[in-house]
Amino acid sequence: MATAAGTWGYRDRFGNAFGRTYFRRFGPGVVSSFGLGTYLGEPTDAVDERYREAIRTALDSGVNLVDTAVNYRCQRSERAVGDALRASSAGREEVVVATKGGFLPFDGGRPDDPGAYVREQFVEPGLVDPADLARGSHSIEPDFLETMLDRSLANLNLDAVDLYYVHNPETQLAARDREAVYDQLADAFRALERRRAAGDIGGYGVATWEAFRVQPDHDAYLDLAEVLARAEDAADVAGADECGLRAIQLPFNVGMADAFTVRAHTGGDERVSALEFAHREGLGVFASAALGQGELAAGIPPEIAAELEGDTTAQRALNFVRSAPAVTAALVGASTVEHVRENVAAGTFDPLGSSAFDAVFE
Predict the structure, then answer these.
(1) Dist. CA 231–CA 266, nearest whole Å
(2) Count of CB atoms within 10 A of residue 24's CB?
(3) What region holds the NADP-dependent oxidoreductase domain (predicted)?
(4) SS3 of 58, please?
(5) Exposure pattern of 100-127 as b/e (b: 16+ CB <10 Å)?
(6) Displacement of CA 39 from its chain's centroid (Å)
């Protein structure tokens, strides 16, 4: 698992090559403000090899954050991450590894009959109850999450991960009401508190696509204040000294800034944005889709680009994300070595200050 000594030592090795605030506090130590995402790509051997090379290059160049999930690329992404970690010069204690559970994963490739696969691999062995499934492919029941955590550890060939996310819990809102989903999260958090006490995870989080950046009347909305309250209750039940909820993940980029602009979460006497809530409560924020799955590398609004540092459009788009208050790191796909090197170089430039970032929205 990542440690304070390990991550600070990593920062000491690479920090002088980057601009201010490139490394940021998270967990027991520090983490690079760029992280590698592993969602995109076909489940093939060729893509596996590109991922392994790109991740190893990043770990050897000043990026000590890797984000994955058990369902990404039919479990191949986790396996590629594990291979790259072993091939890298970075020590395990220097690298923050995050993964997720919630979606039922295929194994190695997409089956011809996904419904039959789910029945044979998950329902019939008793790993999931059909009543717990949303959209036929998603569960956050404790036993299922713990089974997926064990599978992730095996795929990664690790004894523990630093951050384990409950993946897109808003998917469950297609099958049950909001209060029931909060109850599901409470059950999940109690299980994850037990796994944290056992040393299998350093902490846990909630990774979302819509839940934290939409208005309260939206069908996919979940209130961060209620989510945190359920996690604090879980920690109390477990007898933990502190709550294990460490972070949230949600999309944030130049074209998708709802996490900063939409004031949807209970924050005392007023509603606040997801980023403001996270800042107030000391939660890490990991921004997915930092380049809009590659679209923003082709262009961002010129008036915004003019305010940002970077040699390329992609670098300026990434530095927009890094400039947002409360963002711990921008997650970027690790598709090729060339893209990794370009993205890492963005960290040699300084992000906007808070006043300059606020001015973008005036």
Answers:
(1) 16
(2) 16
(3) 35-215
(4) helix
(5) bbbbbbbeeeeeeeeeeebeebbeeeeb
(6) 11
> What is the three-class DSSP state of 319?
helix
Q: What is the mean pLDDT of residues 137-150?
A: 98
Write the DSSP assignment of 161-176 as a string of letters: BSEEEEE-GGGGGGTS
Q: Torsion over CA of 91, 93, 94 and 98, rounded to 10 degrees?
A: 110
Which SS3 state, helix, strand or coil, does residue 77 take?
A: helix
DSSP secondary structure of 189-256: HHHHHHHHHTTSBS-EEEE-SSTTTS-TTSTT---HHHHHHHHHHHHHHHT-SS--EEEEEEE-BTTB
Amino acid at site 165: Y
Taking only the tens place, the pLDDT of each residue in 152-210 is 999 999 999 999 999 999 999 999 999 999 999 999 999 999 999 999 999 999 999 99
**Would you list the domain boundaries of the chain?**
4-359
Q: What is the fold of 4-359?
A: TIM Barrel (3.20.20)
Instruction: Report the length, in residues, of the chain.
Output: 362
Partners of 127 in beta bridges:
none
What is the residue whose two structure tokens read 């093939």? 44
> In the chain, what percentage of residues exceed pLDDT 70?
100
Contacts of 192 (CB under 8 A, 6+ apart): 145, 164, 166, 201, 204, 234, 244
Q: How far apart are CA 188 and CA 179, in angstroms?
A: 14
Residue 121 Cα to chain centre, angstroms: 26
Strand partners of residue 67:
37, 98
